[in-house]
From TrEMBL:
One of its GO terms (molecular function) is aldehyde dehydrogenase (NAD+) activity. The active site is at residue 241. The lineage of its organism: Bacteria, Bacillati, Actinomycetota, Actinomycetes, Pseudonocardiales. It comes from the Bacteria. Keywords: Oxidoreductase. It is an enzyme of class 1 (oxidoreductase). This is aldehyde dehydrogenase (NAD(+)). The keyword Transferase does not apply. InterPro entries: Ald_DH/histidinol_DH, Ald_DH_C, Ald_DH_CS_CYS, Ald_DH_CS_GLU, Ald_DH_N, Aldehyde_DH_dom. Belongs to the aldehyde dehydrogenase family. It catalyses: an aldehyde + NAD(+) + H2O = a carboxylate + NADH + 2 H(+). Residues 11-466 form the Aldehyde dehydrogenase domain.
Length: 475
């Protein structure tokens, strides 16, 4: 059955269909309607009409509705995990614990931030009021689809905005399930609308629509640049969370036995399809063989396998075209002279027609090679040696991107001092992972703006300064 668009509280059939493919088998997993500019117009009109009423609702009411959405996701956790496994290949255990689990944590942190926030503050002689930005276009990716959807929806709804969501056409089925939950939670009609379709047919008309006030996008650098250009022509606010080529820096006193499994998880989880994945490993010169042995040992349980098995750590790529793109990066690394240690471009045996690749490790990767510079978005690790800590910092920063990074050391203060030298939006020390209560985003070509927690809500607000207003009472 082909699911239609979710417009003004109702499911509306489309004129075409987009088939969703299970990447583990190559077989159809479902289908959604294929939208166009006319459907975008209807969705934006519904969001615009719903905006005044939603923005005027007391914050407590908005919090209660977002909490109801969170409870619905928690009830349907297993079902949502199965949908994610079917449409983008996430191993079922990872889908349950991370894909859905992080979405729940997102909403917990956003609700806590909204409850603790101050919508009005006294600044100098004026009152400053945080108001909703208006109608939001939320365009989300296929790699962590539910997490990215609820991160944008939750923050926008708590800020008082209404939303038109365009999920990735590669993995839209979780958005269908979520829209059903929104209706069940009692969300008023028109507050959230979901339009399915491709970037040219739906994404571009949505970004350029004159009644859209703000665009929040997560995805590739190329598409982010296009969205920025379209939004800039209309002087429209954008929040862009784009790609990364993040470095894991192992300082000389790092314990290999502890750090190697942490590094493997940070690189290969979600089959390497994570914007903040640590895909460049920087190690002290002369220790490369030790690190390669440690990484190989830590990768032993990561053989690609059926994502429906509870024991699987590495599933297929999210689509066959994505598998082919990653294979092209591997072949380019070989052509550039990087030394292949594990894996390679071949399809692993015994897995049928799924979009699988083995975890792949290269060493001898230098800054002139494409593998050092280009985001692969797959299960590929590049190892580079450094001679001094100054060189390690220079290598870590030698990137057009600046989304994430990691530093390992036996001395936490030493790790912290080095982290301050890395120009990225986030850095994890000694394996520390995502903190959804703290701001997440990048610098350089990794994007603009921040998501998560109070900073995520602020992305969907405008500040109004009221001069001469009565002073707020002292707290």
């Amino acid at each position: 059955m082909t699911r239609g668009h979710f417009l003004d509280g109702d499911w509306v059939p489309g004129t075409g269909a987009l088939t969703v493919t299970d990447p583990s088998t190559g077989e159809p997993a479902g289908a959604v309607a294929a939208g166009d500019a006319a459907v975008v117009d209807r969705a934006v009109a519904a969001a615009r009409a719903a905006f005044p009423g939603w923005a005027a609702r007391p914050l407590d009411t908005r919090i209660a509705l977002v909490r109801a959405i969170r409870e619905g996701i928690a009830r349907e956790r297993d079902a949502l995990a199965r949908v994610l496994t079917a449409e983008m290949g996430a191993p079922i255990t990872f889908a349950r614990q991370a894909q859905v689990g992080v979405a729940l944590a997102d909403l917990d942190a956003l609700i806590a931030a909204a409850e603790a926030g101050e919508p009005e503050t006294q600044v100098s002689r004026s009152r400053v009021v945080a108001e909703p930005a208006g109608v939001v276009a939320a365009i989300t990716p296929w790699n962590f689809p539910l997490h990215q959807i609820v991160l944008k929806l939750g923050a926008a709804l708590l800020a008082g905005c209404t939303v038109v969501l365009k999920p990735s056409e590669v993995a839209p089925l979780n958005a269908v399930a979520l829209a059903d939950l929104l209706a069940g939670a009692g969300l008023p009609a028109g507050v959230v609308n979901v339009v399915f379709g491709t970037g040219p047919d739906v994404g571009e008309p949505l970004v350029a629509h004159p009644d859209v006030d703000l665009v929040s996008f997560t995805g590739s650098r190329a598409v982010g640049g296009r969205i920025g250009a379209l939004a800039g022509a209309a002087i429209k606010r954008v929040s862009l969370e784009l790609g990364g080529k993040s470095a894991a820096v192992m300082l000389p006193d790092t314990d290999l036995t502890t750090a190697a499994p942490q590094l493997v998880g940070a690189c290969f989880a979600n089959t390497g399809q994570t914007c903040a994945a640590l895909t460049r490993l920087l190690v002290p010169a002369g220790t490369e063989d030790d690190w390669l042995d440690a990484v190989a040992g830590a990768l032993a349980p990561w053989a690609p396998a059926d994502p429906r098995l509870e024991s699987t750590l590495l599933g297929p790529l999210a689509s066959h075209p994505q598998r082919d793109r990653v294979r092209g990066h591997i072949q380019a690394a070989l052509a550039d002279g990087a030394r292949l240690v594990l894996g390679g471009p071949e399809t692993p045996a015994g897995l049928g027609s799924g979009a699988y690749l083995a975890p792949t490790v290269f060493t001898g990767v230098d800054p002139a090679m494409r593998l050092f510079r280009e985001e692969v978005f797959g299960p590929v690790l590049a190892v580079t040696a450094y001679r001094t800590e100054d060189e390690a910092a220079a290598l870590a920063n030698d990137s057009d991107y600046g989304l994430s990074g990691g530093v390992w050391s036996a001395d936490p203060e030493r790790a912290l001092a080095f982290a301050r030298r890395i120009r990225t939006g986030t850095v994890g020390l000694n394996g520390a992972g995502l903190d959804v209560g703290a701001p997440f985003g990048g610098v350089k070509q990794s994007g603009v703006g921040r998501e998560c927690g109070s900073h995520g809500i602020a992305e969907f607000q405008e500040l109004k300064t009221i001069m001469g207003a009565p002073a707020l009472p002292a707290r």
